[in-house]
Amino acid sequence: MITLYHAPQSRSSRIVWLLEEIGVPYTIRPVSIFRPMTGEGVSDAANPHPDGRVPALVHGDALVTESVAIVLYLADAFPQAKLAPAITDSQRGAYLTWLAWYASELEPALFASLRNELTASPQKLRDHEAVVCRLEKALADAPYVMGDSFTGADLLIASALGFGRQAFPASAVLDAYVDRCKARPAATRGVALDGASGPQGLA
Ligand SMILES: N[C@@H](CCC(=O)N[C@@H](CS)C(=O)NCC(=O)O)C(=O)O
After folding, report:
1. What is the pLDDT of residue 203?
2. pTM (two decimals)
3. Residue 203 lies in a domain
């Protein structure tokens, strides 16, 4: 049995999308979280996440937290969904690189831009430019970062861009990529399920 501890319009929304991509039975357990943008909300005692955050996923006896870990875990646990190259596949290294790059490069660049930190920090500006450059290069001739196949890396990257598109410069390539990923039937179902648990604003 899979249970997703979820708060609407947060980082757990993309895990709803992921579970829809995978297509196995699961339960959404809504929990409240602290919302820094509004100062509202408190962490829920029923949430097993060690920091009271979302997403948290329970699968049997396993508790998995951190979006990247959940993507890795579920894509590997359900290989029939074809969201990750197998461990023996020559593309596995590139896939792991994109997942790690997402957490260590894209997210910090996105939030540095949203917090207006780029002009005061040449290093952050350089890192931000590198993120845009890497994405545009990967997507110039391919629909997804790994080429022709949508993977868990796209789910993370496109959901972050969908949330914070204004953190990056105007780009037809990036816009088309986000639209392509969000048009997937599982993504559409994920949005409906996310909204069904009640809008609370972005975390
Ligand atoms: N690196 C974590 C970040 C999780 C996170 O910060 N989630 C936010 C919602 S978007 C949260 O639960 N915030 C509540 C809090 O900080 O107490 C991940 O990607 O899973």
Report:
1. 39
2. 0.95
3. no
